[in-house]
Write a structure and sequence with these properties.
Strands 3, 6, 7, 10, 11, 18 and 19 form a seven-stranded mixed sheet that branches. A six-stranded parallel sheet has the order 14-13-12-15-16-17, with helices on both faces. The chain has helices spanning 39-47, 97-100, 143-147, 149-162, 177-188, 201-209, 223-230, 245-254, 276-282, 296-305, 307-313, 323-331, and strands spanning 2-8, 11-16, 27-36, 49-50, 53-54, 64-72, 84-87, 90-91, 111-112, 126-130, 134-136, 170-173, 194-197, 214-216, 235-240, 255-263, 285-288, 314-319, 339-343. The chain has twelve helices and 19 strands.
Length: 347
Amino acid sequence: MKAVVLTGPRRMELVERPEPVLREPHDVLLRVESVGVCGSDVHYYLDGRIGSQVVRYPFMVGHECSATVLEVGSAVRRVRPGDRVAVEPAVSCGACDQCRAGRRHTCRRLRFLGCPGQMEGCLCERLTMPEECCYALPPELSFDQAALVEPLSIGLYAVRLAGMRRGRPFAVLGAGPIGLCVLIAARAAGAGPAYVTEPIPERRAAAMSLGAAWAGDPYAADPVPTIEAREPLLLDTVFECSGKQEAMDEGVRLLAPGGRLMLIGIPAFDRASFEMDLLRRREIRLQNVRRQNECVADAIALAAERADALDRLRTHTFPLARAPEAMEWVANYRDGIIKAIIRVQDE
């Protein structure tokens, strides 16, 4: 089968890989249809690492995908050949202390699609996954929309983890795909006015179309005084979705006493710093968000309700052979790109 693999920093090649086969009774053989390019894929493409997760070349990235079921193992019951599915990229053991505590996303033996040292990714024509990772799609969702279920589930999980109160204002710092998915999920949950910072005009426009009350360029002017003028008591919740030190600093300044800074963006650096005087005096809480936990089914339901919103995120499509071009476009923010989708079955 055809696959695209990383062969070095900023280098990818289209290669032939062996066909995957069913090995376990609960395995499902999938024909990969659409794959979303994630910021973490771009980190591996540019730098060959995210923190301690270091690529050993050649390696196949990709974890946001939709697929068609081709074949199922003898014990599979939840899907059958011909079903259209969204794929949960995390494979947990179900038996460790984390899984038993309801934290399957921090499983001690977690394997994740496209994560070095765990599993190769889904930039390929066919793939096997456990039955529990395959979620049947409603007919109204396209394969491209279904590939966005994974980032939408992260947005949904982040909003739930934040414990937001209905009607309360909040901020999203960074309106890339994850930031916009947070915005979609928060608005669907009944949150109040949303304030968004983002340097790319097309992404600010997308945020406004998705219900933001205000969107500004943080490099053109300090956004904190503008938001504070609208919200004198400041905000209970800020979602930091860019992975930038300056956004973390802005997030702390925007928070009211007792507020929570949700850290979702993946920084390119290993250490961040905070103004401890503000953190201490305002009793600010820092909450890291690790992917998502048990939100895929609800994200599919939300996607079906807001398919129009997902279409605003998908701005560019590429065939599998042009996956390196897709990575370059996302890495360099070309043409106002928000989400690139790789259509694996396109010739």
